[in-house]
Amino acid sequence: MNSNQLKEIATQVRRDILRMVHQCQSGHPGASLGCADFFVALYFWKLKHDPQFSMKGNGEDLFFLSNGHISPVWYSVLARAGYFDVSELATFRKLDSRLQGHPTTHEGLPGVRIASGSLGQGISVAIGAALGKKLDQDPQKVIVLTGDGELQEGQNWEAAMFAAHHKVDNLIAFVDYNGQQIDGPTKEVMDNGDLAAKFTAFGWEVLSAEGNDMDQLCEDINAAFEASGKGKPVVVLLHTEMGFGVDFMVGTHKWHGIAPNDEQLEKALAQLPSTLQDY
Amino acid sequence: MILEYTEKKDTRSGFGAGLSQLGETHPDVVALCADLIGSLKMGDFQKKYPERFFQVGIAEANMMGIAAGLTISGKIPFTGTFANFSTGRVYDQIRQSIAYSHKNVKICASHAGLTLGEDGATHQILEDLGMMKMLPGMTVINPCDYNQTKAATLAIADHYGPVYLRFGRPVIPVFTPADQVFEIGKAWKIKEGKDVTIFATGHLVWEAVLAEEILKAQGIDAEIINIHTIKPLDEEAVLASIQKTGCVVTAEEHNRLGGLGDSIAQVIVSKQLVPQEYVAVNDSFGESGKPEDLMKKYGLDALTIVEKVKKVIQRKNYE
Fold first, then answer.
1. Any keyword Lipoprotein (chain B) (predicted)?
2. If A117 and its partner were Cys, which of A102, A206, B240, B312 is the partner (CB 3.0–4.6 Å)?
3. Whether B280 contacts B229, CB under 8 Å
């Protein structure tokens, strides 16, 4: 799949996100929009994965979402990639849905391997999955996405220490480095400081990626995969902008957990031409 | 005496022996420990199966997450640390990554309760059974001696789903059969009786056996039931016994709030009203001291069971 096709899918995914969140008037559009390009690049281009989902995923790359509140982007991409029918996106956050507010295995949604939402747990889980692959001599990688605000949770640093100590080099962690969290800019709420230096000091290979430039992003993801398997876990600071793709949502924490109203939805969708069919 | 013993051992060693045996019989069993290999008796497994053993350091939250992740490829992870750090410290990790996600993790917890002794209340968790049994889908097991702990360790490997296995440090009589098959959720009736039922779990089972001897000498015929599985509770066995005896004493090394006693009380209030007395810690923290002194001071011994039996029989007769 070429870069233009990936961009088109990402535009449709952004439409899906906004329509899902609007429909139930709840959910988290900001970072979902920011990470749309990343998810599309992973699922439509980089990952070896099978939409005929199996929990074990033997011989596949496994993806874990630690910042579970950006479920809209994951659900849209999973549906568009064929894990389940896109019509199911209309059930997001509604009664009896498999598309819970935060992702879970509880209702058996294909593509999800563990519940997330309570923050700071994803890197640990991904380490466990990566150790499982090593025990099984499965050469595929384990990918995990965390938020940057989420790194304020101490468990991440327990995990960082473990992964380096035990040389979990089939693990690639991406940090959604958008600099925003619920109460404001991360620098003001609780500054992460120099994340690259911190991960380096913990013994990780540290890279960065352009999260909202599809061509560059694909190159950066490739570089991350190439850096893995060399004795160190890999972390990628994924530079994204919250709300990317919608001019009045971009670059602010304001749209972290707020749904657009009818008028705002119309204004937003006008900026994102439908490239595939709306669900 | 209704049961005899020839040796005394700690229940944690039963866990260690069971884990080591699983290493040989179950290639998918892996073990994780948070800097307490010696205390949890995991050294034999570590030595024999180093590639399946993960030292996580003093980082229990991370250990629970890694254990959950290991299940994804079909591994059966056994985590080992003290009961306090196996539950309260990591409740949210267990809740989300293990229980809600229904992962096949075995949370193995030593040094539970007052019998941890001199280290004091910071380590003597008395709330763990309550926390764990409140999690949907969690199996909660508290075996009574070395042999039963070993048998339970073997049994939970073949049971799919999250399990909390609680054991301890003190050296106590080994009075259950070495060759027992542990049946999860199946109460073990140690002795038939007609006047009162004593439901006991963990270290209090032996105290119940001692109490029975005293009661017999005083003409009271007590039924003794070992509830090694707190959840799922063997309601059928509980109900059958209380319908026969008409009064109940529960005995556990746990806060009276949220433990075995409350599980039994739920059966009583919903199915068959009979008087019940608790032998448990009365909603307080513990303190430093010798295990046997602590058990006496906090009323977790045979004499307290006897006293509560007399009280509950009196209530039965008056009510």
1. no
2. A102
3. no
Model confidence over B142-185: pLDDT tens digits?
999 999 999 999 999 999 999 999 999 999 999 999 999 999 99
> Taking 80 as the threshold, does the pLDDT of residue A174 lie above it?
yes
Whether pLDDT at B319 is above 80: no
Assign B296 a pLDDT band (cuts: 50, 70, 90): very high
* Cβ atoms of B180 and B147 closer than 8 Å: yes
Are B239 and B152 part of one and the same domain?
no
If one counts the domains in chain B, the total is 2
CATH number for the domain spanning B195: value is 3.40.50.920
Question: Which 76-115 residues of chain B touch chain A by CB within 8 A?
Answer: 77, 92-93, 95-97, 100-103
Angstrom distance (rounded) from CA B305 to CA B252: 10
Mutate to test the interface with B, among A158, A166, A167 (most CBs of B within 10 A): A158
- Residue appearing with tokens 């290639």: B27
Give the three-state DSSP class for A83: coil
Residue A151 in domain: yes
Predicted TM-score (pTM) of the model is: 0.97
What integer is the mean pLDDT of B247-274?
A: 98
Contact of B278 with B256, CB cutoff 8 Å: yes
Tokens of A272: 């994102």
The ipTM value here is 0.97
Asked whether residue A153 is domain-assigned, the answer is yes
Q: Domain check: are B167 and B194 in the same one?
A: no
B62 in A contact zone (CB under 8 Å): yes
Q: What is the CATH number of the domain that holds A33?
A: 3.40.50.970
- What pLDDT was estimated at residue A1? 85
Mean pLDDT for chain A?
97
Find the residue in B nearest to A113 (Cα).
B72
Q: Nearest CA to B203 among B139, B298, B107, B120?
A: B298
